[in-house]
Fold this sequence. Notes:
The structure holds two protein chains of two kinds. By secondary structure, chain A is an alpha/beta fold. Chain A folds into two domains: 11-270, TIM Barrel (Alpha-Beta Barrel); 284-383, H-NS DNA Binding Protein (Irregular). Chain A has helices spanning 16-20, 30-43, 57-68, 83-91, 105-112, 116-132, 149-161, 178-192, 207-217, 238-247, 260-270, 292-300, 327-336, 343-360, 366-383; strands spanning 11-14, 47-51, 74-80, 96-102, 136-142, 167-171, 196-200, 221-224, 288-289, 318-319. In chain A, helix 4 (83-91) runs parallel beside helix 6 (116-132) and helix 13 packs across helix 14 (343-360). Chain A is elongated. By secondary structure, chain B is of the alpha/beta class. Helices cover 46% and strands 12% of the residues of chain B. Chain B has helices at residues 3-14, 29-33, 43-56, 70-80, 96-105, 118-125, 129-144, 162-174, 191-205, 220-230, 251-260, 273-283, 305-313, 340-349, 356-373, 379-395; strands spanning 24-27, 60-64, 87-93, 109-115, 149-155, 179-184, 208-213, 234-237, 301-302, 331-332. An eight-stranded parallel beta barrel of chain B has the order 1-2-3-4-5-6-7-8, surrounded by seven helices. Chain B has a two-stranded parallel ribbon with strand order 9-10. Chain B is elongated. The two termini of chain B are 50 Å apart. Classes of the chains: A alpha/beta, B alpha/beta. Chains A and B meet through helix 5, helix 8, helix 9, helix 10 and strand 9 of A and helix 1, helix 4, helix 6, helix 9 and helix 10 of B.
Amino acid sequence: MTEAKSKRYVNIIDTTLRNGEQTAGVVFSKHEKIRIANMLDEIGIPEVEVGTPSLGAIEREIIKKIADEKLNCKIFAYCEAEPEDIEYAVQCGVKNVVINISASDIHIKEKYKKNRTWVINKLREAIRTAKQNNLNFIVSAEDATRADLEFLLKLISIARKKGAYRFRICDTVSKFDPFRTFLYINTISNAMNFPLEVYNHNDFGMATANGIAAIRGGAYSLVASVGGLGEGTGNAAMEEIIMALKYLENIELGIKTSKFREIAEYVARSSARAIPVWKAIVGTNVFAHESGIHADGVIKNPKNYEVFKPSEVGLTRQLVVGKHSGSHTILHKFKEFDIELTDKQANDILGLARSMSIDLKRPLFDKELMYIYNEYAKKKKKQE
Amino acid sequence: MREIDILTEFSQKAGTEIDHKNIKIDDTTLRDGEQTAGVVFANDEKVSIAKMLDKVGVHQIEAGIPTMGGDEKEAIKRIAALGLNCSVLGWNRAVKSDIDASIECGVDAVAISLSSSDIHIEHKLMKSREWVLESVKTSVDYAKGFNLYVSVNAEDASRSDMEFLLQFARTARDAGADRLRYCDTLGILDPFETFIRVKNIIDIIGIDIEMHTHNDFGMAIANAIAGIKAGATYVNTTINGLGERAGNAAFEELIMALKYIEGVDLGFNTTLFRSISEYVAKASNRIIPSWKPIVGGKLFVYESESRFSGVLSDTKTYGLFNERDVGLDKKVILGKYSGVNTIIYKLNTLGFKISENEAEELAEIIRDKTVSLKRALFDSEIIDTYKSYKSRSTRSKSGKKGAKSDRSKK
């Protein structure tokens, strides 16, 4: 972590408003979609995928609204490789589209019930429509990690020849671990010399790691969503990707991370999915310390158990008193209440607090700590 | 050598087969899991969880911290006396009195934990490197005197100076420790760094390595797997990834990733995963997010046309395993992203056979409804929607056909 910051740039395209909303049971309102687009823009996310125009008049109206907001970020609409879908995007007034088509034989056979030639023709047709309408585009290959490599390279060369921004490789079923992701992306990158974008799912908890592996393998861009919201287990979480790039890979993108908690909360409310308290980067428990070992370490120096400051992601540090607390936490906690305890008092109170916490099956509120202290002080007085 | 070439070489090496006969799971739900701020298990719950872990097939249970005394010690005693197939381990600081407490509990294994990073040695322990090495030596000596299986935990190993960490590992090995736990205490490694560092220790010191990874940057599972690829033989997991801050490597994710991504089947009874996860979720008062990998309640709930169309003919179209493998159910709901196939299937399960034309028209009605309700429809709402659509369309049979759905063809 002492090395100089890498000069390397990584593009982030956020899909909270598209694949995030596509999650079973999640629907954003118009107002929420516009707000989320604005928030992503404010913190400096360079590209945002805002919706699927073919979904109907309401969705198109929302996309048009967002396109009219004059945001700094690039706005993308998501289309299947159908001329009709592209035309709907044109109606929304967007300048950029993602053109998606499945690349694996299992999808071609089971989902489309077609063959590879059909896929190539569909893609060409959709690209033609996009170009006729002066749209810029990304070509996205769904289930690319299960595709035949030769066929995938063929699709990439079509995208390159037709002037796509870049080519998106979707690990739709989370087939790869980071090592395979690295090799796959590196191989393709070497073979094609064309900007690659990687889209990960979290079926085995490796979405973020695979995203980072793709960057190491030479990818230029990653697809992410706030809180990892997305179909099934979701996508790579935007906040995890940004922080991992910064602290693990030394790639600083200049994103305003102090807004992460706020955005995560807004998306959580809008999608009716509470942020788990242990959610990496933005969970409230990430900076909560209870156990004697950890709390003691943090009191002595936060660096013992924290890599970055809580304020960097819009959180605050909490010391929790419970079963695993040590006497240092008690001393520290009461100092916050302006009460100086002796070591003996702290140890006595710790014993009382621990057994109360075991009985309640939870940590104690500050009030409860004060009750313990008051009773303890009263008893001591009587004894005197 | 350019970085990319080094990584390519490592990745190719890391792609080689894992010798799965040697991989063992040491589950720490009851220790690091409970150590999570806000989580307290009752003793009966601890015993139940230990039994479940044994039944599902874990090799070792880290049952708690004996030196805490009282209830904690009681629970560990009870677990050690259950006569489980798995080993039962107690967690200790590198202190004789801690180890004595473990012995009193009747465990067969101990973890002796000590920080190996300068930052911890200086700012937390307020000691020196020499003191650390001496403590490792004396405490391992002491525990080995009681014939216990000994794991030496290098806390904050990932921020340790590699030369010192090697010395630490050598000291542990020479004192007779059975393995070294490599703790990425703050979750700050990526899989490539993990692989390189763990391999280095194994190559030079030749001691069994256990991976203890944290999820602060979403890398816990990937790093555990990287460790295994580098030759680590133990992984310290927790159910649901329960653990301090962002948690540990989730047991269920690791087992399934090994099985479906790495081709290593440890023979665990995966169909019990959902029920164990539910039990731990309730006992820790932390509900399972519906999207949690492997065991989330909505993982096999489909709404969008694109996913459902694929899944209709084969679940494998959108996943590497199916719902029965982990004790979950498949379900279809209707919402903003549903289309013809989804609607026909769903209404069929509700007892209504409808045509493609009807489904096209219904798609639009349902989409408007879900957008205004801001959620997917309940079954009763779907039935109502269908019935009122039906009565309208019979009344205006000669009237104009409803607007064609945009997604009609898909």
